[in-house]
Amino acid sequence: MSQSTANPTWKEALKGKTDPAWEDEIDIFEGQIELRKQGKLDEKVFAETRLRRGAYGQRYDNGQRADGIAVRELAFPDAPTKGPDTVWDAPGMCRIKIPFGGVTPEQLEVLADCAEEYSDGILHVTTRQDYQLHFVHIEDTPDMMRRLAAVGITTREACGNSVRNITACPRAGVCHTETFDVSPYSKALMLFLLGHPDVQDFGRKMKPAFSGCQHEACGLVQMHDVGYVAKVENGKRGFKFVVGGGLGPVPHQAKTLYEFIPEEELLPATQAVCRVFARLGEKKNRGRARIKFLVAKLGIDEFRELVDEERKTLPHDDRWTAFLNDMPQTQGDAAREPAPLPEGERAPGFDEWYATNVYRQRQEGYALVTLNLPLGDITSEQTRKLVDIAREFVGDNIRTTVEQNMVLRYVREEDLPALHEALVAAGLGTPGASTIVDVNACPGTDTCKLGIAASRGLGGELIQRLTAKSATLDEAVKGLRINISGCFNSCGQHHVADIGFYGNSRKVSKRTVPHFQVILGGQWTENAGAYGLAVGSVPSKAAPDVVDALADAYASGREKNESFQSWTARLGKREVRNIIEPFMKVPAYEDDKSFYTDWGDSREFTIGDLGVGECAGEIVSLFEIEIVKAESQAFDAQVALDEGGYGEAEELAYKAMLTAARSLVRTEHIDVTEAPDDIVAEFTKRFMDTERFFDKYAKDKFGRYLLRRHAEGPGRCDLDDAKARTEEALLFIEAAHACAARASAATPGGPVDAELGEQPSA
Questions:
Q1: At the topology level of CATH, where does 1-160 sit?
Q2: In the predicted structure, residue 468 carries a pLDDT above the cut 90
Q3: What is this structure's pTM?
Q4: By CB distance 3.0 to 4.6 Å, which of 23, 38, 241, 362 could disulfide with 258?
Q5: CB-based contacts of 670: which residues, under 8 Å, 6+ apart?
Q6: Could you give the C-alpha distances from 589 to 156, 249, 509, 512, 517, in angstroms and in order?
């Protein structure tokens, strides 16, 4: 793990390579870290702001990592004393957003360096095509974000109550059954929604996905908050638009919002959905704050009517269609000319690898190759070797998958033997991709605060056992999917697997025993077309035996070409439960103590170290989120003042007042722009002319600070001028807080939305 060694010169070297908006966001976040360090930023608000920048707190059992290395390294020794499980006391996790899973060799190099320098040297691929780095110190995150931003990668809104990574089928553009390549559309939507004002006031997260066809697994759109299936009508490209899907403790299938929207309506239609969700979605009860509950409450027809009305009133945005003007028809081109696979002898292991890890593309002479990453992990060293391999064989055609793997696209078939040899040498030639040995698992108790049972521990055990006997497995059994979650929240997507597990626990003779609930009969195809059902809970240590029993029963009892889902449905829940029932018993502690520990952990099992989950953070008002940016700008003004940058300090102080004013205005007028004239006009009309910004002692004094600076301009920008403006900004921000507090006290649930006639929290 690395402590930050960045300096102003180092930062300046990256600035020219970074999107200015991303650069500004990272600077603001760095200021927020310093404010929290000084105890000047509320912990609840900081937690939400860091989550929206991809920085999670992490779970540590008794301050120890799974490998026994102590992780209690205080990032800020002088910070106020906190509990034993906060971002201040130990490194956390950083999630990195990878839209449609697409990465380049250059980006992979930077990711490998960041994993090695700031983390534990491992890149973890998630079930939503992101990368995660664990054991990252909070004070290292801004510099890491700058390095990623310089190669076009962001962590913004990879976590928190926001629009998460936008996923898409990794075969998009090369698949035989797709309608068209959805990758360019997923990237366009990601860039449009990233940081968009209309997605900052959600009660919970929103997960979008794209699929190129209806019947394959592709993007698994039926289990997503919003989903898009490629469709062509009358020669016109567009999408079937679904909404309200989701897994979690209570899974929902998405409902069809529109059978077809043309491509130019993709962005505005999604924006309208976001606005309805932000306005009407649950804000108080996190357990019911996802869009699936709003759709279920209103019904899809009423929800559609609200979206239609919202769409009619949306302020026009040129970006809705501008992306279509220069958008590629497909994402990625071959780096080498096609050539067929030659005849001849193959190296040991090639045929097995070819059978499971190679997909022949619709482009003749090319193949897509899957890298089977056990539990989604790839080391920095392996990543660098992969970079060299990609540059030699495929160029930029690299993607992550929702199965926690990576793929190389446009591999010339002639190159497959040489590619296999190179992958084996890098430790990346494992066969069995998308088979029963390719187990998916969330982090579970390794790092997640909500993890109950060791999902990765069980996953590793299953991979080892199933791989050892893969040669003797029935062919139908080889095609089964196993997904594991550490708790009921379904981060491992256990509902859509043939055999799913999620962690829970049971009391046996006053001792807590790790268990897994068994979920059977989920459907991966048809875009996650059906969810499995729970049939019973088994001790963690018995779970591998349950898999063996189910596999044997299916192999011997299935009808010809009968799927596992159909087989479990035909047997019925009672008969299926009879198969697992012998494994549900827990031996007495004195007879077998192993049942009282979990996979990969020699300690006796306990759930006493469960923490508060950070999947989406606490619900924080829009004002609380946006005023933090003003506070960070005011802090930067103070720093510039101390360093003699008087002009910079004066300008930052003015920007801080503008931001604070806009934070208030947006509680009533969500569409206010970032133009200073617009902000000042709306602030004056709503808060100055109405005397709502007045303080009983200062009257309108604090508000006049902004109005005067806006009208007169920057002035001399000497020491006195800069100092005065900085102090005015701090007072203005305090007045904004007081104004928001008065509004909340007067109107339970938050300031009244004057335009919509509703409270934002309704």
A1: Sulfite Reductase Hemoprotein; domain 2 (3.90.480)
A2: yes
A3: 0.84
A4: 241
A5: 197, 198, 201, 275, 278
A6: 48, 31, 8, 11, 21
Residue percentage of the chain with pLDDT more than 90: 65
Q: How far is CA 246 from the centre of its chain?
A: 14
Q: Are 61 and 103 in contact (CB under 8 A)?
A: no
The model's pLDDT over 647-706, given as tens digits with 9 standing for 90+, comes to 999 999 999 999 999 999 998 988 899 999 999 999 999 999 998 888 665 667 789 999
Within 10 angstroms of residue 217's Cβ, the number of other Cβ atoms is 22
3 pLDDT higher than 90: no
The enclosing H or E element of 719 equals helix 719-746
Are the C-beta atoms of 416 and 358 separated by less than 8 Å? yes
Question: Is a pLDDT exceeding 50 seen at residue 750?
Answer: no
Give me the CATH topology for the region 440-596. Sulfite Reductase Hemoprotein; domain 1 (3.30.413)
Report the chain's mean pLDDT, rounded to a whole number: 87
35 closest CA partner among 694, 492, 627: 627
Q: Which of 119-128, 301-310, 654-663, 727-736 has the lowest mean pLDDT?
A: 727-736
**Alpha helices (runs of H) in 558-672, residue ranges in sequence order:** 564-571, 573-580, 622-642, 646-665
Dihedral angle sign, alpha carbons of residues 670, 673, 674, 678: negative
Q: Please give the span between the terminal C-alpha atoms of the chain, in angstroms, as a whole number.
A: 45
Bridge partners, residue 736, by sequence: none
Q: What is the second-level CATH architecture of the domain 350-425?
A: 2-Layer Sandwich (3.30)
Q: Hey, what are 665's tokens? A: 């205005």
13 residue type, one letter: A
